[in-house]
């Protein structure tokens, strides 16, 4: 009698590298450089190291997995999405817009070095601070805050830090609607 053959389902995802973008792949470390900057990310994980492979062939990046497990296939899809975000970031960049809203006490927001400082939030004497992550630029004009950069994770985390700095916990949110809120992301 013949031996049973094991069916291996290969999931392969291919990413086209656009003109003017440089990509280097070293195992699970991927570096993408373009006109706006350079982004590096390490995708190594001891859980999926033997099942997921990242390779570069000419002007294409291939993320493949040779497992039947749904979790492993989803990890390959997540890696593909991260690499697409890295390529898009070094070409176009990312912009998050936030709005300063106050009803009771006029607050002052300033960008100082690697942090954003909020003064007089709900009449508080202490300052509230939010850290800016990575190579992110924060500009404040009137009641609008614009966070720009080429790394999507850094831009998003910086916007979240600014929004979280004005979180209200001890008062009724229906009455005290003061704060800094995310309006749009591009």
Write the topology of this structure:
Elements: E1 11-16, E2 22-26, E3 29-33, E4 38-42, E5 52-57, E6 60-65, H1 70-91, E7 94-101, E8 108-112, E9 115-119, E10 128-131, E11 137-141, E12 144-149, H2 152-165, E13 179-185
Antiparallel strand pairs: 1-6, 2-3, 3-4, 5-6, 7-12, 7-13, 8-9, 9-10, 11-12
Tell me what you see in this structure:
With 186 residues, the protein is α+β, with helices and mostly antiparallel strands. It has two domains: 11-91, Ribosomal protein L6 (Outer Surface Protein A, domain 3, Alpha-Beta Complex); 94-185, Ribosomal protein L6 (Outer Surface Protein A, domain 3), CATH 3.90.930.12. It has two helices and 13 strands, in the order ββββββαββββββαβ. The strands form four sheets. Strands 11-12-7-13 form a four-stranded antiparallel β-sheet, with helices on one face. It has a three-stranded antiparallel β-sheet with strand order 1-6-5, covered by helices on one side. A three-stranded antiparallel β-sheet has the order 2-3-4, covered by helices on one side. Strand 3 (29-33) and strand 4 form a beta hairpin. The protein starts with 10 loop residues before the first strand and ends with a strand. The mean pLDDT is 88.
């Amino acid at each position: 009698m013949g031996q049973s053959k094991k069916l291996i389902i290969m999931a392969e995802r291919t990413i086209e590298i656009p003109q003017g973008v440089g990509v280097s792949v070293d195992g699970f470390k991927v570096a993408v450089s373009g006109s706006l900057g350079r982004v590096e990310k390490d995708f190594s994980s001891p859980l999926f190291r033997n099942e997921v492979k990242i390779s570069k062939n000419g002007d294409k990046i291939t993320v493949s997995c040779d497992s039947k497990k749904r979790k492993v296939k989803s990890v390959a899809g997540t890696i593909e999405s991260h690499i697409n975000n890295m390529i898009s970031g070094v070409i176009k960049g990312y912009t998050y817009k936030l709005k300063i809203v106050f009803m009771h006490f006029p607050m002052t927001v300033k960008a100082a070095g690697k942090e954003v400082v909020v003064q007089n939030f709900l009449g508080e004497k202490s300052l509230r601070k939010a850290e800016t992550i990575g190579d992110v630029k924060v500009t404040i004009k009137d009641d609008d805050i614009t966070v720009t950069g080429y790394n999507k994770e850094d831009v998003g985390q910086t916007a979240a830090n600014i929004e979280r700095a004005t979180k209200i916990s001890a008062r009724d949110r229906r009455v005290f609607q003061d704060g800094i809120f995310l309006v749009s992301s591009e």
